[in-house]
Amino acid sequence: MPADRLDARFKQDTLYVFKAEETQLIKAWPDLSAVRKHDRNARWLDFEPDYPLIRPYRPRRKPKPKPTPADAPQQLALDLVLPPDAPPLPATRPRLKPAQRRKRAFDAFRFSCPKPVARRIEPFRGDHLPLLRLLRALGERGDLFDTNPALGYCLALTLRQSPAAGQPERDRRLDRLTRLKQAEIMAALGLPDSKRAVKAMGKIRPASMSRDLASGLKRLLADEAALQVMGHLPALNLGALTLLLDPQLRALATPVLFEAIVAEPQEAYFPFTARRLADIQQMADALGVDISRRRFRERRRLDALFQDLARDYTRLEDGRLQACRFPPPPVPGTDAIVPLRAPQALVEEGRRQHNCVAGYAERVAGGDTYIYRVLAPQRATLSLVRWPGGRWQVGELLRAGNHPVSAMTRRAVQTWLETHRL
Questions:
Q1: Which residues of the chain fall below pLDDT 50?
Q2: How high is the pLDDT of residue 244?
Q3: Residues with Cβ < 8 Å from 39, sequence gap 6 or more?
Q4: CA angle (180, 183, 188) in 5-degree steps
Q5: So what's the pLDDT on residue 72?
Q6: Measured between alpha carbons, how far is residue 270 from residues 125, 204, 382, 414 in Å?
Q7: 370: buried, middle or exposed (CB in 10 Å: 19+, 13-18, 0-12)?
Q8: Helices (H), 95-210
Q9: Contact (Cβ atoms closer than 8 angstroms) between residue 416 and residue 408
Q10: Kind plus residue range of the DSSP H or E element containing 327
C-alpha cells in the first residue's frame, strides 16, 4: 500500500479514511454510519472498520525550560520593529506528517463522543462501531461495560448479527435484555449462566475480546476444569484464555505460569505463551518427543525448549519447509528493516543471530506472523504478529542471542510500523 495514500482527515462530523484504491466515510457520534467506495466503483457500500476508531489520547507534556546558569553569557536582544504600513506576516504552521494527520483525525473522532463512551470503548481492540452503537442505545444504562465489559462486547456482537429483525425489534430486544441480571443476559445469549461462569466473564479484560474469543466462550465457560483455573486468577487475558481453550496445552501449564501470563501486558493482546506451547507440541510430535509429563512454570524454560526442538525440527523438516510459500510482507520493508520472504532466509537469520526464527516458517506461511531483519540502529530480528482484529503489531524484537534491543531501536521500528497502518 503506498504510504502517501494511507491518510485520514476529520471534517464536518465525518472521519475520512483514504486507503489504497479505497475511500471510507465514518460519521461521528451520534450518527455512527460507515460507508466505503472503491476508486473504480461509483457505489458507496456499508461496512464496519477493522481498525480501532477510539484511540487512547495522551497529550504530550511540554518540556520545562531549562534554567539559565548564572554565569552564562547574556544574549543581546535586538528590537526589530516593522514599519506601520508593513503587511502582516503570514501565520506559518509546521507541515504535518501523514502519521500525525491520521492521529489528529482519529483524536477529533474520539472527541466527538461523550467522554464516558470514549472511556468505555478505548480498551477494546476492535469492533468499535457496534460497541459505539450499543452504548448509544443504552444511554444511562451503559454501566454494564464498567462491571462486565466482556458481556457488553458479546451483547454488541449478538445485536449486530441480527439485522433481519429491523431496528425497532432490535431496540425492543435490547430494552428487554438490559433490564435482566448479568446471569440472565448470559443465558439469553446462549452462554453458561452459573455463578462461576458469570464471575469468570467479569474477569475478562476488554483488550482481550475478539470475535474469535467470543465464539469460544460458550465452550470455555462450560468447562469445569477451566472454570477452576479461572477462579484462582485475579484477571483473565487473551493469553490465559487461549491456553485454557486447548486442554492438551492447558495440562502443560502450572498455576504459576498462568499467573505470569495474566501479569504480562502483551498477553492481553496476543497469546504469546499459548502460541509458543503450540509450536513446542507440534515439533515434539514430529520428532517423537514425549512432553506430556512436563509442567512449565516459567516462560524462559519454554523458550529454551523451543530452541532445542527448533534446531532438530528444522533439519528433519528441511525439505518440507523449503516448499513453504510465504505471502507478501504485511508492511513494506526499508533499507534498514528487510522482510524475510523465504524459509531459507529464516534459517540463515537464525544461524547468524543465534535464535530460533526458523521454527516460525509455518506460522509465516499461515499468514499470522512475519519476520524481518533489522539492520539499524542495531542488528536485530523482528517478528510482526497479527492481533485479533487484523492489526499487525510488534511481537518480538531482539538482538543476537535473544538479548533486548535499545529504546532507540524499538522507537525506530515502531515509527516505521506506524507509517504504514491506520
A1: 1-3
A2: 97
A3: 21, 22, 23
A4: 70
A5: 61
A6: 11, 14, 16, 17
A7: buried
A8: 98-111, 115-121, 128-138, 144-147, 149-160, 167-178, 182-188, 195-203
A9: no
A10: none
- In angstroms, the CA 272 to CA 126 distance is 19
**pTM given for the model:** 0.82
Amino acid identity at 126: G
Under 8 Å between Cβ of 422 and 54: no
Q: Is the peptide bond before 114 cis (omega within 30 degrees of 0)?
A: no
For the stretch 41-76, pLDDT in tens is: 789 999 999 889 998 877 656 666 666 666 666 555
Identity of the amino acid at 308: D
C-alpha cell read off for 348:
540463515
For the record, the C-alpha cell of 22 comes out as 479505497
Q: What is the pLDDT of residue 260?
A: 96
Amino acid at 251: A
Q: Report which DSSP code applies to 342.
A: S
Sign of CA dihedral 108, 23, 330, 244: positive
Q: What order do you get walking across the sheet with 380-386 strand by strand?
A: 337-339, 369-374, 380-386, 392-399, 403-404
